[in-house]
From TrEMBL:
<dbReference type="InterPro" id="IPR001917">
    <property type="entry name" value="Aminotrans_II_pyridoxalP_BS"/>
</dbReference>
<dbReference type="InterPro" id="IPR050106">
    <property type="entry name" value="HistidinolP_aminotransfase"/>
</dbReference>
<keyword id="KW-0808">Transferase</keyword>
<comment type="subunit">
    <text>Homodimer.</text>
</comment>
<dbReference type="Pfam" id="PF00155">
    <property type="entry name" value="Aminotran_1_2"/>
</dbReference>
<dbReference type="GO" id="GO:0000105">
    <property type="term" value="P:L-histidine biosynthetic process"/>
</dbReference>
<dbReference type="GO" id="GO:0030170">
    <property type="term" value="F:pyridoxal phosphate binding"/>
</dbReference>
<dbReference type="GO" id="GO:0004400">
    <property type="term" value="F:histidinol-phosphate transaminase activity"/>
</dbReference>
<dbReference type="InterPro" id="IPR015424">
    <property type="entry name" value="PyrdxlP-dep_Trfase"/>
</dbReference>
<dbReference type="InterPro" id="IPR004839">
    <property type="entry name" value="Aminotransferase_I/II_large"/>
</dbReference>
<protein>
    <recommendedName>
        <fullName>Histidinol-phosphate aminotransferase</fullName>
        <ecNumber>2.6.1.9</ecNumber>
    </recommendedName>
</protein>
<dbReference type="InterPro" id="IPR005861">
    <property type="entry name" value="HisP_aminotrans"/>
</dbReference>
<keyword id="KW-0368">Histidine biosynthesis</keyword>
<keyword id="KW-0032">Aminotransferase</keyword>
<feature type="modified residue" description="N6-(pyridoxal phosphate)lysine">
    <location>
        <position position="224"/>
    </location>
</feature>
<dbReference type="InterPro" id="IPR015421">
    <property type="entry name" value="PyrdxlP-dep_Trfase_major"/>
</dbReference>
<comment type="similarity">
    <text>Belongs to the class-II pyridoxal-phosphate-dependent aminotransferase family. Histidinol-phosphate aminotransferase subfamily.</text>
</comment>
Length: 365
């Protein structure tokens, strides 16, 4: 239909999974586990839950459209100006806001590939041009990105650690890269999984905001290490001048009252954060070892998920695992048809995953 603009018709839909209950009903199974969306298997921070409860009686009011307390706390915690913090309906919304603010048809956005799919989707929505730079040995190719910059480049997305590879850029390389990017190109650093990364050496804090000057945006989320994916709250840290433009574009009440309250409480729940990190750090070596014993290649990660290469099509493994009640992600939509991605679960979930993978691969011959 001529109603649909060609750049919208060209978009491949982001494949949302069915609700677990529905999948189970169709397959006639119960008690399945989901390791497909990089969620926190420990649930939400108990302090966040309590904070939500305290806000329930204010639900007839609109949320604080300025996100005052949460922005203030984030600014305090990370030593950045409050005017440079923008809240979003998940960090997805920050990504989308940056794109809607700065990209128009005819302008280019550089996206490493494979990386998080929302970058491409949002660029396509505004009719911008995507310039893909393939990963090199599963690492973001900074030199390749520098070479891809043209007069039309407006944004560069860097996901650190990168989804789906779990890889982190060496800090030195990243800093050298930032100095070489022209100052009128905005670099978006998506740190959705940074809380899981090794704090020694490779951790990228906010200090490079100073080095880079105004044109860098760092995005973070409460969906992963903080366990609040269902509430949809994330944030971006940037120069206040950039934040000012994003505020003009965003919806006035984009983050709900419970989400703001829970995020504020979660930010201060250091014990929960540490528990989440420790779970991942303790479970990964065991998972690696089990996968290795099966003779499978895997990509060591600094996030809460990792890639495993299958001896057959990953989609087939996905289907077979699903029948056994273990939900993993087949990476064909990321251009990795032989890889599955799983996030670290509880020890029981991880054991069940390994047991099921062994069985499924044996059955598939
Ligand atoms: N960035 C990356 C790399 C992600 O993997 C995700 C979640 N899948 C997000 C951003 C978005 O997270 P949220 O919108 O829940 O903050």
């Amino acid at each position: 239909s001529k109603l649909v603009p060609p750049h919208i018709a060209a978009i491949e839909p982001y494949p949302p999974g069915k609700p677990i209950e529905e999948l189970e009903r169709e397959l006639g199974i119960v008690g399945s586990i989901k390791l497909a969306s990089n969620e926190n298997p420990l649930g939400p921070s108990p302090k966040a839950l309590q904070a939500i409860e305290e806000k329930l009686e204010t639900l007839h009011r609109y949320p604080d459209g300025s996100g005052y307390y949460l922005r203030n706390r984030i600014a305090e915690k990370f030593g950045v100006p409050m005017d440079g913090v923008v809240l979003g309906n998940g960090s997805n919304e920050i990504i989308e806001l940056v794109i809607r603010t700065f990209v128009q048809p005819g302008l280019e956005v550089i996206v490493p590939n494979p990386s998080f799919l929302v970058y491409q989707l949002s660029v396509q929505c505004v009719g911008g041009s995507l310039v893909f730079v393939p990963l090199r040995d599963l690492m973001i190719d900074l030199e390749g990105i520098l070479k891809a910059i043209t007069e039309k480049t407006r944004l560069i997305f860097i996901n650190n650690p990168n989804n789906p590879t779990g890889t982190v850029l060496p800090r030195k390389n990243f800093e050298a890269f930032l100095e070489q990017v022209p100052k009128d190109v905005l670099v978006v650093v998506d740190e959705a999984y940074i809380e899981f990364a090794d704090p020694n050496g490779t951790f990228l804090g906010f200090d490079y905001l100073d080095r880079r000057g105004p044109w860098v945006v760092v995005t973070r989320t409460f969906s992963k290490a903080y366990g609040l994916a269902g509430l949809r709250v994330g944030y971006g840290v940037m120069d206040p001048a950039v934040a000012d433009y994003l505020h003009r574009v965003r919806q006035p009440f984009n983050v709900s009252t419970p989400a703001q309250a829970a995020a504020l409480a979660a930010l201060d729940d250091e014990a929960f954060l540490e528990k989440s990190r420790t779970l991942v750090r303790e479970q990964l070596p065991w998972l690696y070892q089990q996968v290795q014993e099966m003779g499978l290649d895997f990509q060591p990660t600094q996030a809460n998920f990792f890639l495993i290469r299958m001896p057959v099509e990953a989609k087939v493994v996905y289907q077979a695992m699903l029948q056994e009640g273990v939900i993993v992600r087949a990476m064909n939509s990321y251009g990795l048809p032989r890889h599955i991605r799983i996030n670290v679960g509880t020890p029981q979930e991880n054991e069940r995953f390994i047991r099921t993978l062994r069985k499924v691969l044996k059955d598939l011959g």
